[in-house]
Amino acid sequence: MTRKVVLASSNKGKLKEFGEILQPMGMEIVAQGTLGVEDADETGLTFVENAILKARNASEHTGFAAISDDSGLEVDYLQGAPGIYSARYAGSGATDATNIEKLLDALQGVPQEKRTARFRCVLVCMRHKLDPTPLICMGTWEGLILDAPRGEHGFGYDPIFWSPEFEKASAELTSTEKRSVSHRGKAVSMLTEQIAGFLR
Known about the structure:
The protein has 200 residues and is α/β, with parallel strands linked by helices. It has helices at 12-22, 47-62, 96-106, 175-181, 183-198, and strands at 3-7, 27-31, 65-75, 116-126, 135-145, 161-163, 168-169. Helix 4 (175-181) crosses helix 5 (183-198).
C-alpha cells in the first residue's frame, strides 16, 4: 500500500529528489501546492523552528504526514549571517544574484582564512499536525566564501561557496559530486535511513 506524504515546498527539484528516494519505500510524494496549501509564514528564529512550522502547516491543511526542508548559509565572519534569511538576504524579492552581491560586498577585503562558512540543512518529518516528536535530520557542509562567482551549476550561493573536498566551487560540481558531500545530501541520507520506521 502506497502512503501519501506531502512535501512542504513547491520546488520541482526537491519534489523530484524526494520522490525518487522515497517511492521505492512505498511512499508517494505530493507537493503542497498541488493540494492548495499556501506557504507557511517562516517566523521561527532557527532552521529547526522554520522547518517544523512548514511541516506542521502542510500536515494541518492536508491531513497527511509532511516533510519540510529549511536550509541556508552561515558565514562566521558575519556572526552566522545570512542564516535563516539566506533566501531573502538582499530583501524581499531578492534573487540569487542580488543575495550573492550583498554577501560579497559584506566580505570585501576580508582575508581568505576568515571567510569560513557552512551550508546547513534541516529536514523535518511530521506524522500529523500535532506530532510531539517529529523526525529531525540535520546536515552541514563546511567551506569558504570565494571572492567572485564560479561555475554554472546549482543555485543560491553555490557559485561563491568553495568545496574543500573537490577544490572547486559548489557550482562547478556535478549533481552526483555535490550530493556526496552537501548538507542536503547528508540530511536526506539520515532521513531515508529512519523514515520507514518513523512512518510505519
